[in-house]
Structure prediction request, 367 residues.
Amino acid sequence: MISQYQESLLLSARTFQSGPSDSTFEDVLEHIDSGILLFDDEGVLTFVNKQMYGILELNRHSLLGCTLHHLLSHIQLSRFKKKQVLRSYREMVLKGKPSYEFVDEYGRYWRASLSSGEEMKGSYLFTLKEISDYKLIEQTAYQNDSLAMLGRLSASIAHEIRNPLTAIRGFIQLLHPHLHLLGKEEYAKIILAEIDRANDIIHEFLTSSKPSVPQISMIPVSALLKEVVLLTESEALMKGCQINLQVLQEDLVISGDIKQMKQVVLNMIRNAMEAILERVDDSTGRIEVGARKEGTEVRIFISDNGKGMDICTLDRLFNPFFTTKENGTGLGLSVSDRIIKNHGGCISVSSRLNEGTRFVISLPLIH
Prediction:
């Protein structure tokens, strides 16, 4: 079975092969939004449209009369593109699959399709179409489904687990004096810490599925960052790193929910601490926190000299449930991203392995 879109391409290709005096069909093939390669029954390339030349990044009419072997040995064709052409050939010609999807070196999604058989009279028609927009819609739909499922799950977790945890915590505190007499006070501390960690996980689930309505107020950025750094300084020292707060302009003001903004900055500083702990060298851990005005925006930045991240991790960093931590939930940055977007801003991140990471929160400046 072939699609209506492929049928129109087949009709145009067959008509073009028959050599019409009118160039209408050639013009159609030249201006469609897909790249086209047409091989005859002997495997010789008889037609390439300008879209395909652009995709392959080759000079115009440099391929006509070539075979697939000549195409793969073309001196101007990049190694990555040769690899994808060969994989497409294996998947669709040798394995008989009607299409093959891949991601190029620029992060764009493509679908290659093959039409052959009786309707092509022995010829092969390869079409290549960018499907990045479709993939984005697909990923958004998947994310929305995940969040909907998370909403139902978190409501159940909150009622079924939080109440027993509260009761357990109360009894452990009552037993604390007896454990102290037995010399087992450390056990009580461990149990309480684990109960608090379980409660934090439940809180993250609830926040990600049902974020509270922001309580809007004017927030001086200087005061916000000073308070968050003060809250995290002792924890940072225990983990062997220093937090440096740069000198800030006192007139930088944003509009938003002060609790939610603290949650975002705290989360990023704690992530920086974790990244520093996972380094391979013994150099001093440093976390830089600051803010500056750029046009009509305030840019808050948190940077560290931790282990850094690769490209694959950066691409999925803000996806719900994605985490590189052994005990992480994968919700912290997802929630932070949603909070900042609800405030009319955005979060950007840059990172390099073994060099560090830099987060930048951009928010509208209030005059």
In short: Residues 15-22 have pLDDT under 50 and may be disordered.
